[in-house]
Write a structure and sequence with these properties.
With 176 residues, the chain is mostly helical. Helix content is 67%, strand content 10%. The chain has helices spanning 3-6, 26-53, 58-69, 75-82, 86-98, 120-144, 146-159, 162-175, and strands spanning 11-13, 21-23, 73-74, 102-106, 114-118. Helix 2 (26-53) packs antiparallel against helix 6 and helix 3 (58-69) crosses helix 6 (120-144).
């Protein structure tokens, strides 16, 4: 191991119970946070370039992503998933609907509800954006290996607040 890499390696201690605990210094945690910021920039870079040609932003991408994952979701469900204000989401949805990417249908049971669906054009854009991100993730996962992938997912899930984790798991189960 190179000398420069040693500072990134966590220190391990075995407590009396025999269970191994991970201890990271504040500097190692800061480096991890920085890595996440830069990774997020990389993760969003390709879709951002595509979105910029259409005068859209990341909020548009997130809306397309979650509507695609749960066709017929309500505006209220999307609000809860994205954690944004109603005003902010309405601005994004209005643009996507006017541009023919999202269709809003009145609820059959509750006429006050609006159910959201991607149009064929919306599905094509979401696929293009998703393909760009999946290609980057696939390459990174392949380079890191299966154990790192599983560990990375566990770390991400552990960082979620309990309500957020339940929502994430519910989304995953809905697609299963």
């Amino acid at each position: 191991m190179a000398e420069g890499d040693r500072r990134l390696e966590p220190r391990m201690r075995a407590p009396a119970s025999g269970e191994t605990l991970l201890y990271l210094t504040d500097e190692q945690l800061r480096q991890g946070a920085e890595a996440m910021f830069f990774a997020y920039r990389g993760f969003t870079a390709d879709p951002d370039r595509i979105l910029a040609t259409l005068s859209y932003g990341r909020a548009h991408h997130r809306a397309l992503h979650f509507i695609n994952g749960a066709p017929g979701t309500t505006v209220n469900n999307l609000l809860a998933t994205l954690g944004v204000t109603k005003q902010s989401l309405n601005r994004v949805l209005r643009t996507l609907i006017e541009d023919g990417l999202v269709e809003s249908r009145v609820g059959r049971v509750d006429k006050r509800e609006r159910h959201l669906f991607l149009t064929e054009e919306g599905k094509a854009l979401e696929r293009e954006l998703g393909d760009a991100q999946r290609a980057r993730m696939r390459a990174a996962y392949k380079q890191a290996g299966p154990e790192a992938v599983a560990g990375f997912r566990r770390v991400l899930e552990a960082m979620m607040d309990p309500d957020m984790r339940r929502q994430y798991q519910s989304l995953r189960e809905g697609r299963g």
